[in-house]
Design brief:
Blueprint (H helix, E strand, L loop, with lengths): L10 E3 L35 H12 L15 H4 L30 E8 L14 E11 L2 E4 L7 E7 L6 E10 L4 E5 L3 H4 L16 E6 L8 E15 L4 E8 L11 E3 L5 E11 L2 E9 H14 L10 E5 L3 H6 L8 E6 L14 E5 L2 E2 L5 E4 L3 E4 L1 H5 L6 E8 L2 E8 L19 E3 L2 E5 L2 H6 L7 H9 L10 E6 L14 E6 L2 E2 L3 H10 L4 E6 L4 E5 H14 L47
Length: 599
């Protein structure tokens, strides 16, 4: 397979204590615990297609800075086309001739972003990694706000922006992050920053072969950069940072580290998207990606409506195409339409109206083809996931289904997916609990990335990849390591093992485990792990040893701050089936068979 690098377009610089310059992606390097280089860890066995490796390398910091994105442009004919779900105000073109870019005022709306990052250390969850800095691009959208990529300000501690032609940097505040769509909204309170500026105007979705121009502050210099190309493709695209699949514009304009967050213009000077990633391979060249204004408008409308980013909803089903005539006939589907429901996530609202074996033939009145595509614009088709991505969390969708040969209509509420193993940790800092030196933490994708997968074991990895949450709030809780002490003699070599029960009670999540430990009055704490491995500790001795263990390892507390909150029991727990996990990978994609990347 081709060596791929789907990388974020942000430059990275060493911290103040570093002696030599460096260039790498905006993912942070482990600073406390020595670990195997991320690029040397084998994660290929569970992945498909070259795009998978691209995301994986982005995560591990291979290949320097990240990929950018591109821009899509539209002629006046394309600007007259309407795009479904777009909810931004479109203005008249600001310039008649886009060739005279240098004299156009709207270039001054593109600013350079400087961010200082401090990421959590998931192996040692009570501390953070070493800070580093990066740079990217952003642009003004009006009302005192800037738009950039979420990965440009990930784990930020300080964000500064600088206007074109200015030597002063201004402090910016992150108002919202859309992890799935890789967008972030910034504000600058200093009125001097906005003096004499004009916001950019959004344009409509472009057409194929429309001219595009990418503007930003990439590698190679300090001043603004302009590159040109054309729209190569428009389709549902994997988003490397958000591990989701949303509408994306592929372009052939040159994209370099630092372009991330910069605008893409059409020939009329309208912004038609945000540069955010590239695809690099020995077998492909000049493939950049732009977040279109349909996705941008969804993000901005979501923030305006809810005061925060709530995410892109999904049906929560695993689907199969119905291309084979015999398969359609056996399901009593009269025509070449529809997709088969293979599985419904227990935590999805659709689980109350959809069943395994149902055939979805329409979504809000739009016919679904047998290849899981729907009509797009006048002569195109696009992945079925596009329709759900146009909805907002809490919206209701009407589905036309065929069940046992009978046609019917059902309604379901759309909500963002609840992942058993989350791709991103909310709040930034992972939860942890230390009991007699045993470090308990929830299993997350960032933790898996930091650890060598050989140390996790195939069974735990299979659960992470294939299992579904059976009730809201469920987590896989593991012992990441054991801090040696006489109270835990014989258990020192444990690591990355899932705890199943404590004193006979099934552990639902890390907060539930902390509650069970706090309320235990038995003489012993009996932990049951995977494969019936037992750890038995004297409860009083475990409590007494805590202060020595914390002092020895310079740990501030036996638990993370979120576990100090009162525990609320989960009442709507769903009983697990006899199967430990399903047969298909758990992803953000409706079509598991077309999975392109892991987080």
């Amino acid at each position: 397979m081709a060596c791929v690098a789907a990388l974020f377009a942000s430059l990275r610089f060493p911290s103040a204590s570093s002696a030599s310059p460096a260039s790498c992606s905006c993912r942070l390097r482990p600073a406390v615990v020595a670990r195997a280089p991320r690029h040397s860890r084998g994660r290929r066995a569970l992945r498909r297609f070259d795009e998978v490796e691209g995301v994986s390398k982005k995560r591990r910091g291979i290949g320097g800075g990240g990929g950018g994105g591109g821009v899509a442009g539209g002629s006046q004919a394309s600007s007259s086309r309407r795009d479904r779900g777009l909810a931004v105000d479109f203005k008249e073109p600001q310039v008649a001739d886009f060739d005279d870019l240098e004299e156009d005022k709207f270039l001054n709306a593109v600013v350079k972003v400087y961010c200082t990052h401090i990421a959590p250390d998931y192996g040692l969850p009570w501390q953070k990694q070493r800070q580093h800095s990066s740079s990217g691009s952003a642009f003004m959208i009006g009302d005192g706000k800037l738009l950039t990529n979420a990965h440009c300000v990930e784990h930020d501690t300080q964000v500064k922006v600088k206007r074109r032609g200015d030597d002063k940097k201004y402090i910016a505040k992150v108002l919202a992050r859309g992890i799935e769509c890789d967008l972030a909204l910034l504000s600058v309170e200093n009125e001097e920053f906005w003096r004499g500026t004009e916001p950019l105007h959004f344009g409509r979705l472009p057409c194929l072969q429309d001219s595009v121009t990418v503007v930003g502050y990439p590698l190679g210099g300090d001043t603004i950069s302009v590159t040109k190309g054309v729209v190569s493709r428009i389709e549902v695209t994997p988003y490397a940072h958000g591990t989701s699949d949303l509408l994306g514009i592929q372009i052939d304009a040159a994209i370099n580290p630092g372009n991330s967050g910069g605008p893409a213009f059409n020939e009329q000077g309208e912004c038609i998207g945000v540069a955010f990633q590239v695809y690099r391979s020995d077998e492909a060249e000049n493939i950049g990606y732009v977040i279109p204004t349909t996705v941008v408008s969804h993000f901005l409308n979501d923030y305006q409506k809810n005061g925060k980013y709530t995410g892109f909803p999904c049906l929560g089903v695993l689907l199969q195409k119905l291309e084979n005539p015999a398969l359609r006939e056996s399901l009593k589907v009269p025509s070449s339409e529809g997709v088969l429901v293979r599985r419904v996530e227990p935590t999805a609202p659709a689980s109350s109206v959809l069943r395994k074996g149902d055939v979805i033939v329409s979504f809000d009145g739009v016919a679904v083809g047998c290849e899981a595509t729907v009509p797009f614009r006048s002569t195109e088709r696009i992945a079925f996931r596009y329709l759900t991505s146009q909805k907002y969390a809490g919206d209701i969708a009407q589905l036309g289904i065929i069940r046992n040969g009978n046609s019917m209509k059902v309604q379901t509420v759309l909500q963002p997916r609840k992942h058993l193993v989350p791709f991103h940790v909310e709040g930034g800092q992972p939860s942890y609990l230390i009991v007699a030196g045993l470090v308990f933490t929830p299993l997350t994708e960032p933790f898996i990335e930091e650890e060598c997968e050989d140390t996790l074991g195939l069974k735990l990895l299979a659960k992470a990849r294939y299992s579904l949450a059976t009730f809201e709030g469920e987590q896989i809780v593991i012992v990441s390591q054991v801090l040696a002490h006489e109270v835990n003699i014989g258990y020192e070599h444990m690591g990355n093992q899932q705890v199943i029960k404590l004193n006979g009670t099934v552990v639902k999540n890390i907060h539930h485990l902390a509650h069970l430990v706090d309320t235990c009055t038995d003489k012993f704490l009996t932990f049951e792990f995977e494969d019936d491995f037992l750890v038995v500790l004297n409860r009083e001795e475990a409590v007494a040893a805590s202060s020595d263990i914390l002092k020895e390892h310079a740990i501030p507390s036996v638990r993370s701050s979120d576990l100090s909150e009162p525990y609320v029991d989960i009442k709507d727990e769903i009983q697990k089936t006899s199967e430990d996990f399903g047969e298909s990978p758990v992803t953000n994609f409706e079509m598991g068979i077309d999975c392109l990347l892991w987080a």
